[in-house]
Amino acid sequence: MSNSIISLIGNTPLVKTETLIKNPKVSLYLKLEGQNPGGSVKDRTAYNMIKSALERGEINKESKLIEATSGNTGIALAMIAGIFKLNIELVMPENSTIERVQTMRAYGAKVTLTDADGGIEYARDYAEEKVNSDGYFMINQFSNNDNWKAHYKTTGPEIWRDTKHKITHFVSSMGTTGTIMGTSTFLKEQNDTIQIVGVQPTDNSKIPGIRKWPLEYLPKIFDPKKVDQVIEVSDVEAKAMTQRLAKDEGIFAGMSSGGATSAAVRLCEELDEGVVVSIICDRGDRYLSSDLFL
C-alpha cells in the first residue's frame, strides 16, 4: 500500500531484452519509465523541481507557474502542480498530440498552444516573455539544476543497484539532457569506466523528445564532458524500433524510446561483452493519434 501517488515515482522496472541482442556476452536492459504514475521519466524531474522550489520559498500557492514543453515534462508538471494545488500554464507547439494536451488539462493545467512552425524554441520564447511581462515563475527545466539532480538522486542509484554494480554502458536520448546529466554524474562516481552514450537525431530528422539544439537554445544544464559518445539516429530508425519494441518485446513506448533503443542495439553489436542500460522514457498511448503505430 502506498501513502501517496508521489511515492510511486521512481523504482521503475529494469527488464532484459529478449529479442534484440544476439551476443550472449552482451546484455541489454531497458528501464521502463512509463511505469511512473504520470507515464514518463519526467515525473522524477517535475517532482524534484517543484518540491525544491517550494522548500526554498521561491514559489507558493499564489505563484503563477509557466513552462514550455514538448509533452512529457508538461504532463508531469501538471500532475505534480495539481497535487500541490499550484497554478500552472504549459506552453507547447500546436502540432503536439491531442493525448498530451488533454492529459495536461485533465490534471488541471492551462495549456497554451503556439505556432507549430516555431517549434519548442518559440514556445520557450513565449514563456520567457510571460515571465518578463506578467510576473510568471518559470520552472525552466533547461537550466534548472533540480532537473538533473532528480536523476542523480534516483535514476542513477536505481540502475547501479539493479544491475548489481555491473553496468558498463548507459544510453539515453537527449532532450533537456537532465536524465543523462544526473545519471552520468552518479554512475561515474561509482565507476568512472562506465560509458555514457547520448542519442541525438540525424540532421533533418524529427523525433519527439530528442533534440539537436541550436547553440542559443542549448540547455544550460548540459555538460558535454559527462557524455562519452553521441550516437545519431534517424526518425525512420526510431519509428521502426518503437514498433518493434511493441510487437516483439511487449514494450509500448514513444518514439524517443525507439531512438534510444536503436542506438543501444547498435552499440551492443560493437561490444564483445558488457551490460548496457537504456531508458524507455514514456508510454506509447500518448502517441496513438499520430502515425507512429500505423
Helix content: 25-40%
Query: Gyration radius, to the nearest Å?
Result: 18 Å
Based on helices, strands and strand pairing, what is the structural class? Answer: alpha/beta
Q: What share of residues are in beta strands?
A: 15-25%
**Cα shape:** globular
Contiguous low-pLDDT stretches (5 residues minimum) are none
- Report the CATH C-level class of the largest domain: Alpha Beta
Topology, number of strands: 10
Query: What is CATH's topology name of the largest domain?
Result: Rossmann fold
With strands numbered from the N-terminus, the spatial order across the biggest sheet is 1-2-10-7-8-9
Q: Using the 3D structure, state the CATH architecture of the largest domain.
A: 3-Layer(aba) Sandwich
How would a textbook summarize the main sheet?
A: 6 strands, mixed
Query: What is the helix/strand order?
Result: EEHEHEHEHEHEHEEHHE
Mean pLDDT: 96
Q: How many domain modules?
A: 2
Distance between the termini: 39 Å
Count of DSSP-assigned helices: 8
Describe, in plain words, how this protein is organized in 3D.
This protein has 294 residues and is of the alpha/beta class. The chain has 2 domains: 5-35 and 154-287, Rossmann fold (3-Layer(aba) Sandwich); 42-138, Rossmann fold (3-Layer(aba) Sandwich), CATH 3.40.50.1100. The protein has helices at 42-55, 72-83, 98-106, 119-134, 145-162, 178-190, 235-249, 255-270, and strands at 14-16, 26-32, 64-68, 87-93, 110-114, 137-138, 169-173, 195-201, 229-233, 274-280. The protein has a 6-stranded mixed β-sheet with strand order 1-2-10-7-8-9. Strand 7 (169-173), helix 6 (178-190) and strand 8 (195-201) form a beta-alpha-beta unit. Helix 5 packs across helix 6 and helix 7 crosses helix 8 (255-270). It is globular, with a radius of gyration of 18 Å. The model has no long low-confidence stretch (mean pLDDT 96).
